[in-house]
């Protein structure tokens, strides 16, 4: 992880545009069912500086904020604006839309794996990856099998905010996957879309408390156990991605071809985005 003593890097207009675009995708991923904003932030290489900033904003402000500001702007745009547009496609064409995201994540896995090995690998790194993968598989399968609805109130919306922040801090933890089994996803997202303060306030409080409590812990893990932590996240990303594959839609030849095309398109876009991102970093 970047040290807080590193020299501050400036952000040129091209890289700022890229960060806004990436932030928008993370914001979209945060709100759409089955997608994890945290996974996308890892894929785009923004996760580590984000955790370092959230865990100690005062100390790392000059280092990370110039890069994170356009990202945050894009995140808000994606969460509140673009997400509404993509929600239309998710409702009308749910399986192809999800397959595009699957392709995006798959296409960025090679660069993610390279970054995970920056400080070397060991048997423990692979054990961490497999263990985290198994835990997420078990958790998400258990949530899919659970169907308990609750009556939304102030304290449940606090919980919604906790889940929303957790989906960014803990990659693979899609807040929609956590809230849907409880019947909280629709009223929470509806309240956000309509700027309902009775929902926004407790949600924001829950999210802030979660960030304060967990961001520093995640940051310490990366500092002290970089390889273990990063490979563990890769395991989480793989498990979370496998769990959103619309398996049933591949049974019909027509939809299978369309879904496969969307996955390939997502992979192609991710590889192009990774190449563009590398070129931008090389120029800085």
TrEMBL record:
TM annotation in the entry: 16-47, 67-90, 97-113, 125-143, 155-179, 199-218, 225-244, 256-273
Keyword annotations: Membrane, Transmembrane, Transmembrane helix
Pfam families associated with the record: VCA0040-like
Keyword match Transmembrane: yes
PANTHER family associated with the record: INTEGRAL MEMBRANE PROTEIN (PTHR37308), POLYPRENYL-PHOSPHATE TRANSPORTER (PTHR37308:SF1)
The name this protein goes by in its record: DUF368 domain-containing protein
Lineage: Bacteria, Bacillati, Bacillota, Clostridia, Lachnospirales
């Amino acid at each position: 992880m970047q040290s807080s003593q590193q020299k501050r890097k400036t952000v040129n207009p091209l890289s700022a545009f890229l960060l806004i675009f990436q932030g928008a995708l993370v914001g979209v991923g945060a709100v759409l069912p089955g997608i994890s904003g945290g996974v996308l932030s890892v894929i785009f290489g923004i996760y580590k500086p984000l955790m370092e900033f959230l865990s100690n904003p005062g100390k790392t402000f000059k280092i990370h904020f110039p890069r994170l500001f356009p990202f945050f702007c894009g995140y808000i745009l994606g969460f509140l604006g673009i997400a509404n547009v993509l929600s239309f496609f998710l409702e009308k064409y749910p399986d192809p839309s999800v397959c595009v995201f699957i392709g995006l994540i798959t296409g960025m896995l090679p660069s993610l794996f390279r970054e995970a090995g920056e400080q070397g690998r060991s048997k423990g790194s692979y054990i961490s990856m497999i263990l985290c993968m198994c835990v997420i598989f078990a958790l998400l399968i258990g949530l899919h099998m659970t169907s308990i609805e609750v009556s939304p109130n102030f304290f449940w919306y606090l919980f919604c905010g906790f889940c929303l922040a957790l989906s960014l801090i803990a990659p693979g933890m899609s807040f929609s996957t956590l809230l849907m089994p409880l019947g909280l996803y629709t009223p929470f997202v509806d309240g956000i879309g309509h700027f309902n303060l009775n929902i926004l306030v407790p949600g924001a409080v829950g999210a802030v408390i979660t960030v304060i409590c967990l961001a520093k812990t995640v940051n310490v893990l990366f500092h002290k156990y970089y390889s273990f932590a990063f490979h563990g996240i890769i395991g989480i990303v793989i498990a979370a991605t496998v769990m959103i594959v619309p398996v049933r839609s591949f049974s019909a030849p027509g939809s299978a071809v369309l879904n496969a095309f969307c996955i390939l398109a997502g992979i192609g876009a991710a590889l192009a985005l990774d190449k563009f991102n590398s070129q931008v970093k090389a120029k800085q």
